[in-house]
Amino acid sequence: MLTLTVPENKNPVGARGAPAGGDALPGGNVLTVATGASGQDFLVSRALWIGSGGNLRVLTEKGQDVLFKNVADGTMLPVRATRVYATNSTAADILALR
C-alpha cells in the first residue's frame, strides 16, 4: 500500500490560487478515466486513484510504457501519467488527479 504524505501548511493557497508547495499537494481537478479499446489520453496527472484494484498499464509523462501489477483497491498511485491503456489493465474505477 502506498501512502501519500502532504506537508502541513497553515496557508495551503499560494499566489493566484495555486497550491503552495507545487506538486507536493493533491490535485485540483479530478477526471474519470474510462478504459476502452485503445485507452484514454489526458493531460499529465499528479496521481491516479484506483478504486477497484488489478493491473494498470500507463504511459508516463516521460514516455515510458509501464505495467503496475496487482494494485490494491483504494490505492493512490503517485504517477505522472498521460494515458491509461485498456490492454493489460484490469483495474477499474480510476480517477486522474491533476
What general form does the structure show?
globular
Name the helicity range: under 10%
Question: Which stretches are poorly predicted, pLDDT < 50 over at least 5 residues?
Answer: 1-22
Q: How can the largest sheet be summarized?
A: 4 strands, antiparallel
Tally of helical segments: 0
Strand order of the largest sheet: 1-8-3-6
Overall average pLDDT: 76
Percentage of residues in DSSP E strands: 35-45%
The number of E-state strands comes to 8
Instruction: Please compute the radius of gyration using only Cα atoms.
Output: 14 Å
Explain this structure to me?
It is a single chain. By secondary structure, the protein is an all-beta fold. The protein is 0% helix and 41% strand. The chain has strands at residues 30-33, 40-41, 47-52, 54-60, 65-71, 75-77, 81-85, 92-97. It has a four-stranded antiparallel β-sheet, with no helix packed on it. Residues 1-22 have low confidence and may be disordered.
Keywords:
98 residues, mainly beta, 4-stranded antiparallel sheet, 8 strands
Topology:
Blueprint: E1 30-33, E2 40-41, E3 47-52, E4 54-60, E5 65-71, E6 75-77, E7 81-85, E8 92-97
Antiparallel strand pairs: 1-8, 2-7, 3-6, 3-8, 4-5, 4-7
Summarize the structure.
The protein is mainly beta and 98 residues long. The protein is built from no helices and eight strands.
